[in-house]
Amino acid sequence: FPEVVTFGESMALLIAEGGKGLEYANTLTPSFGGAESNVAIGLARLGHTSGWCGRLGDDPFGHRVIKAIRGEGVDVSRAQLTAEAPTGLMIRENVAGKSSVYYYRKLSAASRMRPEHLDEAYIAGAKILHVTGITPALSDSCAETAAAAMDLAKRHGVKVSFDPNLRLKLWDLEAARKVLLPLAMKADYFLPGLDELKLLYETESLEEILSRLNELPGVSVIKGGKDETYLFEHGKLTPVPYYKVDHVIDTVGAGDGFCAGFLSGLLRGYPLEEAVRLGNLIGSQVIQAVGDWEGLPSAAEIDRLLSGVGHVER
Ligand code: KDG
Fold it and tell me: What is the ipTM of this complex?
């Protein structure tokens, strides 16, 4: 069984080219996205075994997405293709440096995920289960599935990592708060962004945020600080600085890259602070490439970066 198991909605992605916006673009480039499969791909590239379980439509988009995830070395043996409903779709445009995502995923195959679709032995065989707050935003049955998966992992001694990934285009803040905060209580590793915490806890104050995080049983890692990620472990705050990059090209997927790096650090047996540092490094690579997962580096690339070997053109 894979070391890390994750599940959620992966979708076909169409990117409007030419900076004209979707309304006027002449070309849409196909790809795919999904926070959980991004993390699974990141882990596979770093040399770990990862499995992505999810539901896709038994349609051309579904086939395309599952082949692409499989092609990245992620185990998709527990993913299901169903004729019951279509594969979700998201479309991205970039106008004047501002990126917007449009979702076409209501009633998608993934939104019909139910707790019975979980493979208990598969989750029990993992070291870490990674869940994001996008899944519970999809439907009530998806919210039940996310909670059930976390409970199941805990029963089997599998560590649970949870990224709230607040998506206000999928649900309103009040609804999100009611579901995400109880899920955070189930996590061994809670991996929110600072902006998300400000919204979820209704405060701008870091001190207040930390006192709320202190009520959680697990370790928290706060992404998206100005110059650093914060590790918050049993009341102790450790800032871990970012790697500086010269050209930020596309920040989408940085959080997933961070999660992949952090989980890789845990699997490698690094101390938490070093796992956060590896998360920062992976995030810094993702933002230098276009796409949600394309910039995720391989273990060899990371070794080269850390040993200071520059780019060799030929
Ligand atoms: O974190 C990047 C993801 O947001 C993206 O790949 C798509 O899962 C996605 C979503 O729901 O927005």
Answer: 0.92
Q: What are the sequence ranges of the domains in the chain?
A: 4-8+35-83+113-304
Strands 236-241 and 50-53: unpaired
CA 244–ligand 1 middle distance (angstroms): 24
What is the CB-side half-sphere exposure of residue 37 using CA atoms within 13 A?
A: 30
Q: Which residues are catalytic?
A: 256
Q: What is the pLDDT of residue 311?
A: 67
Written as six digits, the tokens of 242 are 């970012």
- CATH 3.40.190.10 holds for 4-8+35-83+113-304: no
Does residue 309 have a pLDDT over 80? no
For ligand 1, say whether the CB of 256 is within 6 Å of any of its atoms.
Answer: yes
**Which of 167, 195, 294 has most ligand 1 atoms within 8 Å of CB, for mutation?**
167
* Ligand 1 atom at minimal distance to the Cα of residue 101: 12
pLDDT band at 310 (very low <50, low <70, confident <90, very high): low
Buried b (16+ CB within 10 A) or exposed e, 76-109: bebbbbbeebbbbbbbbbbeeeeeeeeeebeebb
**pLDDT value of position 34:** 98
Q: What's the helix, strand, coil split of the chain in %, to 5?
A: 40, 25, 40
Over residues 14-65, the pLDDT tens digits come to: 999 998 899 999 999 999 999 999 999 999 999 999 999 999 999 999 999 9
In short, whether 252's Cβ falls inside 6 Å of ligand 1 is: yes
Bridge partner list, 81 = 56
pLDDT tens digits, one per residue of 185-209 = 999 999 999 999 999 999 999 999 9
Q: Ligand 1 pocket, 36 CB below 6 A? A: no
Q: Average pLDDT over the chain, rounded to whole?
A: 96
Distance CA 59, CA 86 (A): 7
State if residue 65 touches ligand 1 by the CB under 6 angstroms criterion: no
